[in-house]
TrEMBL record:
L-aspartate binds at residues 182, 228, 456, 497. The keyword Repeat does not apply. The gene is aspS. It catalyses: tRNA(Asx) + L-aspartate + ATP = L-aspartyl-tRNA(Asx) + AMP + diphosphate. It is found in: Cytoplasm. Signal peptide: none annotated. This is Aspartate--tRNA(Asp/Asn) ligase. Pfam families: GAD, tRNA-synt_2, tRNA_anti-codon. It is an enzyme of class 6 (ligase).
Length: 600
C-alpha cells in the first residue's frame, strides 16, 4: 500500500551526504537499489540521480515496525526515509562516495511499489540494447546514463553562457519550413489548412541563419533540433541536435578563433582537460594524402605513403593498371605485425572491399629478413627492396597496399588504418586530438547524378584565387570551408558564405541549376541578398557526437534520452504508427496499400 509524502520535505539528495552531516537528522527520497535482510538487521541501499546511501535498521536501535517494513522492500520501490546520519559501524565501502556513513531511520514510508524490473538497474549493463530501449525509462535510471545526461546538460549550459558572453544572440528558427530538395531527404509534415501542401522539417537552420545575418543580428547561436530522413547507419539518428552559429563581418580565422576559445573552456570546465591553442590545421588534400580521410584520427601513426613512382615500372599488373587509369598505389606500414596469420590478412582484405577496393596486396617482413608477399613473383629484388625502403619497412613489419582510383585508395586505406588501430588497441579514449581540416574541394563529382554537387552546400564561398576555375575546371576549386575533427570524428563543420550575386550565380550554374530552379528553391534567400548583405560565415557542431566523445561512449544513443533504433523507430513508444482514417481525411491524404509480393 503506497503512502503519501505529505508532511515530509527532502533535505538532501542521497549522494550529497557526507561525514560532515554526521549527527544531523535528514530526509532522503529515492529508489531501493538493493535490500539485504540479515534477520533483525536490514541493509537498504537507496539511490537517486546523485548516488547511493545505505540505510540500516537494527533491532534495539530501530523501531520494530520500521524494521518489518524495511524487510518487505524490493528493488525499485520508491521510499522516503527520515533518519540520523552516523559513521558506519561496519566496514567502509570505498566504491561509493557515501561509503563512510549510513542513515539510521526514525521514519520509513513506501511511496510507490515496483514490479520486478525486466533487467537489473546497474552500471555497464550486459542486457541487450533492444530490451533496454523498450524500457528506456528504467535504463535511464542507471548511473552511467544519468552521468551522460548530466554532462550533456552541463555542455548545453556552458555553451549558452560562453556564446552569450561573446556577444551572440540566441534566436529560434522555425521547425515548419519550406521543403528544399538539396542535401538529404526532408521529413514532410502535411498541412491540414493547405491540402496537398507540405512543410519540411529543418535539416539544419542554414537558410534562416543566413537571413538573420541579412537582418543585422550580427552573431547568432542556437541549440537547434534538426531532422534528416536518410538511411541510418548504426550511429545516426533521424533527429539530432546542433550547436548552430553564424557571424557577420568575419572570415575563416575569426570563426576558428572564437570556436577554439569555446572548445578550450568546454573541455577545461567539463573534463579538466587542457586543449592547447592554436589547434593544429591541415588542408583537406594533406589529410587525404596522409590519412586517407577528411576526419583523420591523429592519436596514432600508420600514415599512408604514395608509392606510385616506386612501382610504376614493375611487372605487377594490379599496380601498373591502376596507374594507367589515372589512379595511384599507396600503402600503410603496420609496425610489428609481420607475423600476422594469413587468415587475418584475408579478413582485412574482405574489410577493404566494403570501401570499393578490389583487394589488398601485402608484404610481410619476417624477423629473419625473409619476405613473404602476395606479389613478389612480379617484382625484381631491387624493385621489392625499393618498395620496402619507401615504406620505412623493417623486419617484423607488415606492409599493406591498395591500387585503384585515388578515392577508392584513400577510402579503403583510411578505413583500414583505423580498423587496425582498433584491433591493436592503439586508441586511447582519454586522449583528445583536435585538428581543423581546411580548404575542402568546393564541388565533388556525383557518378549517380552525373554532375558536380556541392561538398557542403550551394552557399559556400570559393577561395578567391580559385574563382577563375569555376567554369573551366570545377573540380580544382577549393572552398572556404572548415571542419573541426576530434579523434577521427567530425564534430563540427562550417564555411564562409557567398554574399555576392555574381559568384552565387556561377555556383548554381556549376551545380547544373537554371536560374528558375535556383529561384524556385531558394528565392527568398536570393531576394534577401538584393538588399545589402554583410559578409558572413558560420559553423555547426553535432552536439550528440561531441558529448559522446567527451563522455567516452561508443554510441550517440548513450547520450540521447530517448533515441531511435536503426530503422528510425522508437522501441518504447512504438512510433511511427499508422494515423486514423479521421486524421488522414482531415489532411486530405490517402495511404496506398503496400502490395504484397506473392512468391511463385
Amino acid at each position: 500500500m503506497a503512502e503519501s509524502m505529505q508532511g515530509l520535505k527532502r533535505t538532501h539528495r542521497c549522494g550529497e551526504l557526507s561525514v560532515a552531516n554526521v549527527g544531523e537528522t535528514v530526509t532522503i527520497m529515492g529508489w531501493v537499489q538493493k535490500n539485504r535482510n540479515k534477520g533483525g538487521l536490514v541493509f537498504t541501499d537507496v539511490r537517486d540521480r546523485s548516488g547511493i546511501i545505505q540505510v540500516v535498521c537494527e533491532e534495539g536501535t530501530t523501531d520494530a515496525a520500521i524494521i518489518e517494513k524495511a524487510a518487505s522492500l524490493r528493488a525499485e520501490y520508491v521510499v522516503a526515509v527520515v533518519g540520523k546520519v552516523e559513521r558506519r559501524s561496519g566496514a567502509v565501502n570505498d566504491k561509493i562516495a557515501t561509503g563512510e556513513i549510513e542513515v539510521i531511520p526514525s521514519e520509513l514510508r513506501v511511496l510507490s511499489e515496483s514490479q520486478t524490473p525486466p533487467f537489473p538497474i546497474e552500471e555497464n549493463s550486459k542486457t541487450k540494447e533492444d530490451i533496454r530501449l523498450k524500457y528506456r525509462y528504467l535504463d535511464l535510471r542507471r548511473p552511467d546514463l544519468q552521468r551522460n545526461l548530466r554532462m550533456k546538460s552541463q555542455v548545453m549550459t556552458l555553451t549558452r553562457q560562453f556564446f552569450s558572453d561573446e556577444g551572440f544572440l540566441e534566436v529560434e528558427t522555425p521547425m515548419l519550413g519550406k521543403t528544399t530538395p538539396e542535401g538529404a531527404r526532408d521529413y514532410l509534415v502535411p498541412s491540414r489548412i493547405h491540402p496537398g501542401s507540405f512543410y519540411g522539417l529543418p535539416q539544419s537552420p542554414q537558410l534562416y541563419k543566413q537571413l538573420l545575418m541579412c537582418s543585422g543580428v550580427d552573431r547568432y547561436i542556437q541549440i537547434a533540433r534538426c531532422f534528416r530522413d536518410e538511411d541510418l547507419r548504426a550511429d545516426r539518428q533521424p533527429e539530432f541536435t546542433q550547436i548552430d552559429m553564424e557571424l557577420s563581418f568575419v572570415d575563416v580565422d575569426d570563426v576558428i578563433e572564437v570556436n577554439e576559445k569555446y572548445l578550450k573552456k568546454l573541455f577545461k570546465e567539463v573534463l579538466d582537460v587542457d586543449v592547447q591553442l592554436p589547434i593544429q590545421r591541415m588542408t583537406w588534400q594533406e589529410a587525404m594524402n596522409r590519412y586517407g580521410s577528411d576526419k583523420p584520427d591523429l592519436r596514432f601513426g600508420m600514415e599512408l605513403k604514395d608509392v606510385s613512382d616506386v612501382v610504376k615500372d614493375c611487372g605487377f599488373a594490379v599496380f601498373t593498371g591502376a596507374l594507367e587509369n589515372g589512379g595511384s598505389v599507396r600503402g600503410i606500414n603496420a609496425k610489428g605485425q609481420g607475423s600476422m596469420p594469413r587468415k587475418k590478412i584475408d579478413k582485412l582484405t574482405a574489410f577493404v572491399k566494403d570501401y570499393g577496393a578490389k583487394g589488398l596486396a601485402y608484404v610481410a617482413l619476417q624477423e629473419d629478413g625473409t619476405v613473404k608477399s602476395s606479389f613478389a613473383k612480379f617484382m625484381t629484388d631491387e624493385q621489392m627492396d625499393a618498395l620496402v625502403k619507401a615504406m620505412d619497412g623493417e623486419p617484423g613489419d607488415l606492409l599493406l597496399f591498395a591500387a585503384d582510383k585515388n578515392k577508392v585508395v584513400w577510402d579503403s586505406l583510411g578505413a583500414l588504418r583505423v580498423e587496425l588501430a582498433k584491433q591493436l588497441e592503439l586508441l586511447d579514449k582519454n586522449e583528445y586530438r583536435f585538428v581543423w581540416i581546411t580548404e575542402f574541394p568546393l564541388l565533388e563529382w556525383s557518378e549517380e547524378q552525373n554532375r558536380f554537387v556541392a561538398m557542403h552546400h550551394p552557399f559556400t564561398m570559393p577561395m578567391e584565387e580559385d574563382i577563375q576555375y569555376i567554369e573551366s575546371d570545377p573540380g580544382r576549386v577549393r572552398a572556404k570551408a572548415y571542419d573541426i575533427v576530434l579523434n577521427g570524428n567530425e564534430i563540427g563543420g562550417g564555411s564562409v558564405r557567398i554574399f555576392q550575386d555574381d559568384i552565387q550565380e556561377m555556383m548554381f550554374k556549376a551545380l547544373g541549376f537554371t536560374k528558375e530552379q535556383a529561384y524556385s528553391q531558394f528565392g527568398f534567400l536570393l531576394d534577401a541578398f538584393k538588399y545589402g548583405v554583410p559578409p558572413h560565415a558560420g559553423l555547426a557542431y553535432g552536439l550528440d557526437r561531441l558529448v559522446m566523445l567527451m563522455a567516452k561512449q561508443d554510441s550517440i544513443r548513450d547520450v540521447i534520452a530517448f533515441p531511435k533504433i536503426k530503422d528510425a523507430s522508437c522501441l518504447m513508444t512504438e512510433a511511427p504508427t499508422p494515423a486514423s482514417e479521421k486524421q488522414l481525411e482531415e489532411l486530405s491524404l490517402a495511404v496506398k496499400a503496400q502490395e504484397e509480393t506473392v512468391e511463385e
